[in-house]
Structures are given as C-alpha cells and as structure tokens.
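Let's sit down with a protein and look at its sequence and fold side by side. Which protein we use is up to you, so please pick one and set it down. Label the sequence line and the structure token line clearly, so we can match residues to local backbone shapes. Go ahead whenever you are ready, and we will take it from there:

***
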Amino acid sequence: MTATVAADVVQSADVVQSVDWLAIAPPVVAAVAGLAVLVLDLFLPEARKHLLGPVSCAGLALAGLALLPLLDGDRSTFCLTAEPDVCSYVADPFTLAVQLLVLGGAFVAALLSTASVRDERLPAGEFWFLLLSSAAGAALLPASRDLATLVVALEVASLPAFALVGLRRGDRLSSEAALKFFLSSVTATAVMLLGVSFVYAATGSLHLTTVADALPGEDARLETVAMTGVVLTLVGFAFKTAAAPFHFWVPDTYVGAPLPVAAYLSVVGKAVGFSGLILVTVVAFPRYDHVWGPALAVLAALTMTVGNVAALRQDTGRAHGAVRLLAWSSVGQAGYLLVPLAAAGGADSPTEAIGATVAYALVYAVVNLGAFAVAAHVRTRSAAHRVDDYRGLYARHPLAALALGFFLLCLAGLPPGVIGLFAKVAVFRTAVDAGLGWLAVVMAVNVVIALFYYLRWTALLFLPAEEAAPARVARSAPARADADSAAGSVRTATAVRTVDGVRTARPVRISAPVTAAVALTGVLAVALSGAPQLVLRFASTTLL
C-alpha cells in the first residue's frame, strides 16, 4: 500500500511543472499592477484618485524593466512533460521585441491618459485597471506558442479595450463606437475559434510547432479541414490588424474613444494582431505558405490603398477630422506592415521579412504615438478637433508644431524623418526580393498618395494663424452644428475668447505628462533618424 502511494506521488511530481517566473515576469507584473490599482481604488478618497495614474505608469515601467534579465538567452516554460521542447510560453528575441513595443506603447498611452482621465472625468479606477489588464494580455500574446494560449491572450488584450472605448458615460459617440468594436471583434473571434477547432481536428494538437509538423497530414480527407482552419484563423487575425475589408470599425472607434485609448489601439492593438499573425503563419502554418502568402499580398495591397485613399479624402474642416485622418492613416500603415509577411510566404527563410515587419512596427509606434501626443494637447483647446484647428500651431506652440511636423514627415518617409524612409525601404526591398514586383509598385503608388495628406497637414502648422478666421466664419450652419455637437460630447478645459468678432480658443499650457510623452517619442524619433541602422539591426535579430 505504501509503495503504491509513493509511486503515485512520484508520478504526480513528474506531471507538475516548475514555472519560470523570470520568463513570464513582464505580463505578470502588468497584471499585478492592474490588480493593485483596483484594490487601491477601493480605499483612496476621491481627492486622491489621481495617484492611480502614476502608480499605473510605474507598473508599466517595471514590466518593461523586467525584460532586461531576459536578454541573456531564450527561456521557455509550461512545457509538455513528455516533450520538453514543446512549450506554451517562449521568451525569445521576437517575444522581447514585441513586448518592448507593447509595454512602451502602453506606457506612453498611460502618460497621455493622466490628463484625459481628469479632464473628461472618467472613472479612474476602472480606466487604469482596464488599461493594465489589456497591456498584460498584449504582452502575453507574442510569447504564446499554442493556439489556446494565443486566443486567450488575444481576448485578454481585446475585452478591456472594448470597455475603454465606451468609458465615457452618457456619450453617444463613445457608446456606438464601443458597440461596433465589440460586435465586430466578437464575430472575428468566433470565426478564428472555428478555424482553430478545424486545425485541432486535423492535427490533434494546439502547440504551434506540433501543428507545423502535422500539416498537411497523411490523411487526404483532412486536407480540406486543415485548409479551412488555416483560412479562418487568418481571417480572425486580419480583423485585429485592421486589414481591409475588416477595417470598417477603425474610424468610428478611434473617434468615439478617449484620445489616449485611440493611440493605444493604433499601436498596441496593431502589434497584438501582427505578432499573432506572424506566429500562426510562419510558425504554425509554414507548409501552407502557398495559401497565406498570396492572400496576405492581396490584403496588403487592398489595405494600404483603402487607408490612404480614405485619408486623402478627409475634409480638413470636419469635426473630429484629425482623429479620422490618423485612423485612416493607421489603416494604410497596416498595409505596409503586411507586405513583409506576404513576402515571407515565398522566402526560403522568413527571418528578413519578420525583421522588416518588427522594424517598421517599432518605428511606426514611436512616431504615431508622438503624433497622438501632440493631438492630445490640441484637443484641450478645440473639442471639435478638426485638422484646420492645427493652422498656426507654430505661432502658439513652436515646439509642439515642430514635433508634430517631424512625426508626420517620418510617417510619410521624407527627410528629416530618415527613420521612416529607411523603414519603408526595408519593407519595399522584401517585396522586391520575394518577386512581388506588382506589390512593390502598389506600395510605391500609395506612398506618393500618402505624401499629399501628410504634407498638407504639416503645411497647416506653419501657416499664419489669422488665416483660420475666414474659415471659421464661412462654415455652413450644418458644419457649425456638427462641430457644436462634437464639442459637447467631450468635457475639456477649453477657454474661449472673442477676437474681432470671431470666437477662438485660448492657448492652453501643455500638461506635464503630455509634454513627457511628446519629449520621449520625439527624442527616440530623432535618435533613430540619426542612426536608423540601430532599429534595423535590432529587428534583424528577432528570430523565431
């Protein structure tokens, strides 16, 4: 009897796994910070709720610092006892690069949110808990190496984002945006889960490396099931990346969400989608590259064209036009990010393509967050937030105008925004090397289209401020009504004065957190433009 019990204990010990806490520290620290904020919210008086912002920023900073001990080599945990090489969590260079992007983007979004939570009177405890929870899920996703963990991480990153978008209580735009975002995402998740179930039925496993070895199987009858599973899984991630025609939720969601949340979705949400897309294509479905390679090429061409053409057609006098322009710009940028992944479908080694995607994502994250940071300041003096409201910004705030101009030039890929140019060249080269000449041509045409609206916005920054007055007077009654409705939907600390019979917004001092966000992203963008090889060399090491 004793011997039997002892044998059972030994067998149970073999099944129990030891957890590498150092490997999982980045998402765990973010999750613990979220729980700490939720508990603190219960005990802090209303007058001290503002302390939750610095606590959240500190938690994200600690999660980012937790990446440093992982630089000495690959780590893995939650592995199969029978197959120690098959693991559910892997901290490799690719994981660390994406986690750096995610946690850095969440940190900048948190800096922008400190003023927004106060000015728009958002519930502080709920906001910071949701932001940290979403960041924890986003940090978990690039380390996931089985389809179940991948889906769970994706939903942990997405579900809090729905609530963040709709956190403005009583705001019609916010409620509609959250509902559209939720319904669209749930539908995409259902499609993706159906695809995952088909893949599991065809392979008998959820681990990415095991799925790659089992596809295509020896049983030809399962070929159709496997192919269908691959396609449906890709459709789910295409929604998360805002790839056309799955992009329709983006403009309304960005407009209805608090501006820092829109910035968060444009960078962190996109990073989540692309890291998941890389894992399922390159790691899990490499033998179906003849299927997903051409499909991603078509999606890339369609996405960049739809995004840039829609951005080109935006009315500079329309309410919320600045956010809509950034939203459509992000759709176009998603098309560029898809180009290297499409090129990986026909490459002998996907290393260079993955490196180009990660490099472009890092560059895009820095400059896009910087543009949103300046936009967060401009919105404090103009709740309607038109593109025309940026006219004469250089006269009011020279540093903010210079920073925004530099960020827009980086997004356009023009000097002095050298880092944007280098990133686009790296993406363009992957398409040419893969024999996708037609896709390279489509990308070149779209880059030219994007130049127009980026330069138009940049030019407005340096025009005399007095030229904005006739535009205000000449606006039609419907346009004024639209603007007044938009202004009433957001609670801001906007001061108004009358000059020559024209109501204009009084310049508002940039808050310290927004200044820190602009300075941080600006310094990084300038440094990378001075040494663009750093980010390209760093991204080239992101091997899977």
